[in-house]
Amino acid sequence: MNQKDSLLLVLLMALWGFNFSVIKLGVNNMDPFLLTALRFTLAVLPLIFFIRRPKVPWRYLMAYGLTFGVGVWGFTTLSVGAGLSSGLASLLLDMSVISSLLVGRYLLKEQVTVSKVLGSVLALLGLGIIIWNQDGSVTALGLALVLSASVFWSVNGLIVKRSGTREIFAFNIWGMAFAPIPLLLLALIVSGPEAVAQSIADINGSVLFSAAFQAYPTTLLGYWFWNKMIVKYSVSSVAPMTLLVPVFALIGGYIFFGESLDAAQSVAAVVILLGVAISEVKLPKGRGVIVKAS
């Protein structure tokens, strides 16, 4: 990965990290599934009427919308609503580093190198330190939701790769169009029609800011660039960069909501950063390959 793309990815990880605080702001004032549906509605409309549909089968667009809109962000937002801190939700979402490496190796036939494995192990060690020091704040429901979201994150990358699209922005827009209706249906099923109606009636400035921030810089700009990198580089090369997101999310949680950032979390953040750095080390060609695609 060249230096320019690496720097831009770090800036994107900072944006995504602070976005978890914005999500918490929204779920404090609105049903989680409904908030996510509003996010993707704003991201798609009216832009979709000015963007030509990408030349890929409909099944990829539908699968992308469901895995990205419902699987990744519907479940993640619900996990924050279930009591997980914004920083912890971001942290656990990064367990996708494991499934992404497996997807890269077994489904996309990508190389898995010593540096990628070692970097991921160090990063996961950092994640483990933070989880170990949460004082029982990891609820079973929140854990199940965000870990499910982490698997969907890896599946989402596979869908983009398998689609073979080069029209990244159009693919993102048209795929997200399949997210709002399923999210609205889930809100009705989980919370009930009366609660959804009341949530809509109680929309305020905090909700609108949260949804707009998630829709525009985070989703439209962020995932356009992310999917571009997924297409340009291997999944197992790009995926470790997401380990930076919880670092920024923990900082954001501390600044905006007073969520604790203790000594153990600080140490873990350093370990995660070290793991990401090692994962990005370029070894001489032909060396350091643990598994090579056949």
Q: Strand arrangement, largest sheet?
A: 1-2
Which class best fits the helix and strand makeup?
A: mainly alpha
What portion of residues is helical?
A: over 70%
> What characterizes the major β-sheet?
2 strands, antiparallel
The beta-strand count equals 2
List SSEs in N-to-C order: HHHHHEHHHHHHHHHE
What is the tally of helical segments? 14
Radius of gyration: 19 Å
Mean pLDDT: 84
The N- and C-terminal alpha carbons lie at a distance of 23 Å
Low-confidence stretches: none
Give a written overview of the molecule.
This protein is mainly α. It has 14 helices and 2 strands, in the order H-H-H-H-H-E-H-H-H-H-H-H-H-H-H-E. The protein has a two-stranded antiparallel sheet with strand order 1-2. Helix 2 (32-44) crosses helix 3 and helix 8 (168-176) crosses helix 11 (205-232).
Quickly describe the structure.
With 294 residues, the chain is an all-alpha fold. It has helices at 3-27, 32-44, 58-81, 86-93, 96-107, 114-132, 140-163, 168-176, 180-191, 193-201, 205-232, 235-238, 245-257, 263-279, and strands at residues 112-113, 289-291.
